[in-house]
């Protein structure tokens, strides 16, 4: 789980992501997961003229570079990003295999990544929770608020994934946070919601001063036990090993 630091410079953000993927591969990780909207952060403001420019296409330069890196380093890469599809924007995630091919694309189903009054002609959600068969078993995605929607969770659980990748972007509305507050108010809530999925859940949050997202990562067992943890507050990589 790679907690990257997100700033205003998208090229620098992508460069940091690629460096962390290379570091993960150098440490013999088979899969590396980055957070929701890892390339830009969730800095959308419900103005399509502004927000569509944040989007990446799956055939665009940024995603192509990640596919090439995945193939070069022989590592699976999962990453969340704002996806532009023609004149619409989605909160999406993809899984890239070590051959550099996208084997799974997920579009967030829950609408909480944008405002309630955002124009639905531009701001859209997915309607399915697909899974992909991989060498790790069956893998699926949830993104951020999806984890707290019983219907979405039940739909994915019914497909019996072995591993769920959960990129998210979390801050506190008042902008203040510390490790103690995370542990007191949030950590075990996330672990309990992960237990409802019924499989291993790997979750990672980005770190940014742009919106107050405070980082942190966990791998949670099907029973809701936290197996590995990287405390919030710093960028870095959480390494963990599970057998599905």
Describe this structure in words.
The chain has 244 residues and is α/β, with parallel strands linked by helices. The chain has a single domain (2-237), classed as Carbon-nitrogen hydrolase (Nitrilase/N-carbamoyl-D-aminoacid amidohydrolase), CATH 3.60.110. It has 5 helices and 12 strands. It has helices at 10-26, 48-51, 61-73, 150-157, 179-197, and strands at 2-3, 31-33, 76-85, 88-96, 102-107, 131-134, 137-141, 163-168, 200-205, 217-220, 226-230, 236-237. The protein has a 6-stranded mixed beta sheet, covered by helices on one side. Strands 2-3-4-5 form a 4-stranded mixed beta sheet. The protein has a two-stranded antiparallel ribbon with strand order 1-12. Helix 1 (10-26) runs parallel beside helix 3 (61-73). The model has no long low-confidence stretch (mean pLDDT 96).
Largest sheet: 6 strands, mixed
CATH-derived topology: Nitrilase/N-carbamoyl-D-aminoacid amidohydrolase
Structural class designation:
alpha/beta
Mean pLDDT rating: 96
Total E-strand runs: 12
Low-confidence segments:
none
CATH architecture: 4-Layer Sandwich
The radius of gyration over CA amounts to: 16 Å
Helix coverage percent? 25-40%
Span between N and C termini? Answer: 17 Å
What's the CATH C level?
A: Alpha Beta
Number of domains: 1
**Tally of helical segments:** 5
Strand order of the largest sheet: 6-7-8-9-10-11
What best-fitting shape do the alpha-carbon axes yield? globular
What is the N-to-C order of secondary-structure elements (H for helix, E for strand)?
A: EHEHHEEEEEHEHEEEE
CATH superfamily: Carbon-nitrogen hydrolase
Strand content: 25-35%
